[in-house]
Amino acid sequence: MTMADRSIGKEQSIASAIAAMKANRPLRAEEICRDYLLLNPGCKDHLRLLGHALMKQNRLEEAERQIRFALTLEPRSPQLMEDLGSVLALREQYADAIIFFKNAIRLEPRLPLAHKKLGQALAAIGMGEDADREFEEYLELDKNKGVVANAVAELQAGLFDDAVKTLQQAIKDNPKNVDAMRYLAGAYLGKKVQLDDAEALLRQAAQVAPDYVAAWMLLGSVLMERGKYLDAIEAYRSATRLAPDDAEPWAGLGNAYARASYVEESAQAFARSVTLDPDMAGSQMGYAHILKTLGDQPGALKAYRAAIRIKPDFGEVYWSMANLKVFQFEDAEVVAMEKQLQRDDLSKSAEIHFRFALGKACEDLGDYDRAWHYYHSGNEAQRKQVQYDPTDFEVRQTKVTEVFSREFLQERSNNGCADADPIFIVGLPRSGSTLVEQILASHSQVEGTSELPILGRIAGSIGRYRRDNKAYPESVRDLRDKDWRAYGLQYMEESRRHRATDKPFFTDKLPNNFPHVGLIHLALPNAKIINARRHPLDSCLGGYKQLFGQGQNFTYDMFELAEYYKQYHGVMTHWHTVLPGKVLDVHYEETVTDLDAQVRRILTHCGLPFEEQCLRFHETERAVKTASSEQVRQPIYRGALGKWRRYEKHLGPWLEELDEIIRELPETVRNAGL
Hints:
Blueprint: H1 3-6, H2 10-22, H3 26-39, H4 44-56, H5 60-73, H6 78-90, H7 94-107, H8 112-124, H9 128-156, H10 160-173, H11 178-191, H12 195-208, H13 213-225, H14 229-242, H15 247-259, H16 263-276, H17 281-293, H18 297-310, H19 315-322, H20 331-341, H21 348-364, H22 368-383, H23 390-403, H24 406-411, E1 422-427, H25 433-441, E2 446-448, H26 455-461, H27 481-495, E3 505-508, H28 517-523, E4 528-533, H29 536-544, H30 558-578, E5 583-587, H31 588-593, H32 595-605, H33 652-657, H34 659-663, H35 667-670
Parallel strand pairs: 1-3, 1-4, 2-3, 4-5
Helix pairs in contact: 2-3, 2-4, 3-4, 4-5, 5-6, 6-7, 6-8, 7-8, 8-9, 9-10, 9-11, 10-11, 11-12, 11-13, 12-13, 13-14, 13-15, 14-15, 15-16, 15-17, 16-17, 17-18, 18-19, 19-21, 20-21, 21-22, 23-30, 29-30
């Protein structure tokens, strides 16, 4: 066989080997596996298939050797333990076989054949009663497994409704069929529907079978999707307790900790995951993300590059490196990205990530036309992948300004929660909000808590269950005076989950909170609000160059981005009109050119005494989760002022649409970068 024959893909090789086994050609299956293993000696799937092929040829000693080797690579694999038990039983080493069958069942209680083989081994040494119990378990599991297998096949064929009916009937027939519960929950999660039912199914499965690792793992995923991060942490903790040497539960736990803003705990969980299995590219990337958040850029780059070595087409990792902002790619990395884009089989997601990363690479090289080509083509591709309705957004903003009129706000003032702890930083992405937050978080009385997803949830809940379907913001017209205080208290209660200190004030810098200034004023009248502003062209360009992990779907089309900016500007103008003095505008350009004056303005607005440390914000050690995390760890620099001028010839639509807003800017902002 030639080297070209040996370099066929893993899936094709496995399919060929399985076909040979089904055709009763174990020698041919052995040849296929060995050829693949020459170039990929650590492939556990091929090692397992090779063991099966050798067993089929009655070469039991060789089979045992291969399976034991595979177990050194994946010591917690229940399937490999079952295989080793099978080899030992065939060699009539029943006592040892029983140990491995029991270990396999302990890790995965729903392996039907493991129960059957354990029963046979127990019977062989005269333990008849124990053997009978295992045979009964096998018969029950085998019946259930067949039904679930049919449902899985239906899911794979795209027959979602049929699969759901099959699994629901399986649970009706056997309320303890935890496999059916798991796959039904997985089907709901895949479609992102009935997630409350998915959670209930998995919690029930975990009660029936507390040692069912796969159920705990899937429960963690469902809870993450539902935004219940603290509950997800507990689910993944259960999985790590059951499988402490398995890397995947630790990776899940690391991700859950990260989303819940437990940064140190996340780093520890990811470190455990990559130690257990350094060849999991996703874990390496997650570890790198959290190291970046902690300010360990060398450690983050090491983990990112480890992920790339494992998975060279991992476009998201390249973009994550670019997203360090103060990082520049090596020449070889730029060449590698360009070669990946030439592939015909590259996934759309990978292609988009590579385009944004190459935009950053070309910008660093001063090739702005080529950088724009990659940014623009990346945005065009990403816009097709996301949903955004600009008309719907405009209608919602119009309703907000209509509902929260001056009269409405005056009539309902002084009813909210009196707590003055929160400092809201609103605006648009990439407009300097992280810089403002870092300045405030450098003050001895302020805790920086990043972007809190609380206010939007509260707004969405107001009127959710009304029979007339009247939603926010119109639904607030019917709130009682005491309801405003209740919503303020709800915000304060939920925010405590994200706080790590007892400092009297904390920041919430979710930019998308800008439509909720009226809600903040009525629910939390003593909260402070800062609007982080930047030259509209730099603000739009910053958003257009950013590939967001989720949300901000308005940034992927030039015209939609300009219209969004106009809506934002209009809403903020409304707040300044109906709530004069409530919101402090902080222009990024003025902060960069006169830091001392702007820091004093910010602190005065928040009722805080001046502290010198706020001028040295880059020295403050704290976790920063946004794209600007590395930039705010640097002293003030003017290199980002007027950056739009480098791309001016490509920005015609923005120059036209935003001209009136630009002409109203302070001269220092309008002329920044000249």
